[in-house]
Amino acid sequence: MPDRLGRPKRIVGVCGERLADPSVRGVFNSHLQESFNQIPREVGDIESEWTMFSSSIVDAAIRSCGRKVSGAGRGSNPRTQWWTLEVRDAVKLKKESYRAWLARGTLEAAEAYRQAKQTTAVVVSEAKTRVWEEFGEAMEKDYRTASGKFWQTVRRLRRGKRLSANTVYSGDGELLASTGDIVGQWKEYFKDLLNPTDTPSIEEPEAEDSEVDSFITQAEVTEVVQQLLGGKAPGVDEIRPEYLKSLDVVGMSWLTRLCNIAWRSGTVPLDWATGVVIPLFKKGDRRVCSNYRRITLLSLPGKVYSRVLERRVRSLVEPRIQEEQCGFRPSRGTLDQLYTFHRVLEGSWEFAQPVHMCFGKLSTVSLVAFCGRISRRSQGLEGVWFGDHRISSLIFADDVVLLAPSSLDLQHALGRFAAECEAAGMRVSTSKSEAMVLDRKKVACTLQVGGEVLPQVEEFKYLRVLFTSEGRMDCEIDRRIDAAAAVMQSMYQSVVVKKELSRKVKLSIYQSIYVPTLTYGHELWVMTERVRSRIQAAEMSFLRKVAGRSLRGKELCHPGGVRSRAAAPLHGKGAVEVAQASVSDASRMSPWRGVLGMPHREEAPGKTQYMLERLCLSAGLGTPRGPSGRTGGSVWGEG
């Protein structure tokens, strides 16, 4: 029988959360200082220096924090912790009584089986209750002393049981079942994906700057380390962010010394350039490798080093990046993209101007590896022309949304974009790209890429927000309410109604998970009384469970009573308050971030019509003009 892939039943790790205790942190730094005093003063090569640092910090963490075992031991099951010796004996006695009843068929044997069955049910119920009580007490303790472990448990409860794929398809469509073949297929898949053979070689001119050539200071390293997020997975060196964030002056000086050695030598340790690729399932068939997204676990000290260099060169690189590049720059995040796209659709619907859209996804992109970090990039000498604007560089261009006033214009823009992508080693995925038309009546939009017709849809999910061809957000609000209900359902038995968990713990989950899930993308909503009532009803469904009350409770029939009873320790805002406040803030945002040729600043009041004209011109939708030639009519002219 072929070997099966799976997670090891018994995993031994380090109790890194104990570093939050000052006494444990002091012991950790004392062990690290002992190792630091033994290193030679003369600077060695980068690999030997890195080996001493990595082994010393991991050994100090083990000696100060201790180890922990997670998963099942030999012969046990981590998902049935209530299966004790008492339960096993009761179940065994019930089975023996059942077989005796079948063999004899007497009334005494039937009565013995009935009593054994009742006794087993009571024993199992008591064991399960005891395990749930212990789980609640452990969760309450972790919330006070080990927040990282607490939120990790909450995430595991939300995800539920994840099925692993024991078989995958090869490139030829053959189903692979053995461990060696499966690992080999994943290796070949990522090798072809992350190492394309047609990557263009571009030599960048080196910038001469005295600040870049200077040594790395301890203040720079300390500032970057303090910005690391805790609870993240380590790289191949098993160094966790809690280790680096717990370093004192001696540990920081050692890490700074290591970064300067790498800076002067121009090389980095092999562990810094080695990434562990983890496939995470998205949707579709679990046996198809392309249905997984990839994350790469990198060395955290290597991340610190690259972050220091990135902060130094940002002042040199930022002026060279076009204003339309979004995703990793200040004031150009997901919310700005959503708000800009929504304003285009909203303005076009108001003036009865149809918008033809193509949501394009890139299947294969050019890759550039720096210090083990994979970045996707396409840069040509000529660039891509859109109207009067030229895009000379696209960084992290995974997808693109093309807008045009007609299907012919959209097909022309899509053809030029696909041609430039092919020249740069990229390709528009016809299986993941779709077309949609915003209009008051149904309009056909036939788009082709490489002879293949893109499907036309009535709704599309862009940046996790559902946009429809009718320009309404009702379906998206329904999705948000359903997603929040799914969150509550996934944690109902284990968190929401657990008497062992305090109300403060439940409300922290309410504010950290339930409210963000319910109100994601609320900046695009129109807060009518109906929408406000629906959001409040979804919010009260959670708070009523926390308060232990139902809709029939006379003393809590009003939402204010539920909030005052359930959310007494709650210092933040509820879902309705968050939505109303953020919609008000969104009305003051600049809607032109990420749009070609538009100013990225706040505009003075009274210029709404003027800015709408410029926004529509930049999207290629023309200018709204009335019958007499004045702006503001329902007839659109050419831009």
UniProtKB/TrEMBL annotation:
Descriptive protein name: Reverse transcriptase domain-containing protein
Organism the protein comes from: Hemibagrus guttatus
